[in-house]
């Protein structure tokens, strides 16, 4: 019984990307921001449209969430008033006071964890590199919230 050896071609992605300039432009770490390849008007348009869509959706979801929370609170008040449920207000007050103490404890230290600091630094660097895109997004977001 003869054993047939299959030969496999190994694809080295590092070598493959060196020979493909379009691939290198898109995925190379030193390529900079993806928005930098667009002109100012296009960056403003992209930022404005995505901002408007985000603001519009945020407004609709916000209204829905406010209605759900308000309606839920209203139903709980009715259920409490009619006797279907009984709220232990002393327990609520104790839990609120405990939460206040924890907030005071955490805010007195005033130290930010390194993970949060690194993420904030990444966001700030992105915003600085894409000022035009960010400005368009902010304007579009405000328009979306207003519509």
Description:
By secondary structure, the chain is mainly alpha-helical. Helices cover about 75% and strands about 0% of the residues. The chain has six helices and no strands. Helix 3 crosses helix 6 (about 130-145). The longest helix is centred in the middle third of the chain and has 43 residues, at about 40-80. The model has no long low-confidence stretch (mean pLDDT about 75).
Mean pLDDT: 77
Total helical segments: 6
| SS content category | mainly alpha
Instruction: Give helix % range.
Output: over 70%
Using only C-alpha atoms, the radius of gyration works out to 27 Å
Main β-sheet description: none
Give me the count of strands: 0
CA-based shape: elongated
Q: Give the termini separation.
A: 77 Å
Low-confidence stretches: none
Order of helices and strands: HHHHHH
Proportion of beta-strand residues: under 5%
Pfam families: FUN14
Membrane topology: Multi-pass membrane protein
Keywords: Membrane, Mitochondrion, Mitochondrion outer membrane, Nucleus, Phosphoprotein, Transcription, Transcription regulation, Transmembrane, Transmembrane helix
Subcellular location: Mitochondrion outer membrane; Nucleus
Identify the notable features of this structure and list them briefly.
transcription; mitochondrion outer membrane; mainly alpha; 6 helices; nucleus; 147 residues; transcription regulation
């Amino acid at each position: 019984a003869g054993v047939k050896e299959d030969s496999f071609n190994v694809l080295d992605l590092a070598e493959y990307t060196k020979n493909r300039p379009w691939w290198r432009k898109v995925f190379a770490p030193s390529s900079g921001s993806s928005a930098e390849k667009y002109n100012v008007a296009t960056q403003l348009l992209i930022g404005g449209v995505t901002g408007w869509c985000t603001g519009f959706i945020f407004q609709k979801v916000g209204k829905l969430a406010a209605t759900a929370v308000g309606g839920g609170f209203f139903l709980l008040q009715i259920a409490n008033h009619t006797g279907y449920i009984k709220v232990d207000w002393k327990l609520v007050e104790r839990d609120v006071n405990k939460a206040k103490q924890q907030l005071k404890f955490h805010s007195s230290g005033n130290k930010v964890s390194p993970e949060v600091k690194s993420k904030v630094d990444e966001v700030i660097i992105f915003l600085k590199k894409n000022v035009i895109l960010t400005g368009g997004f902010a304007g579009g977001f405000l328009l979306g919230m207003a519509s």
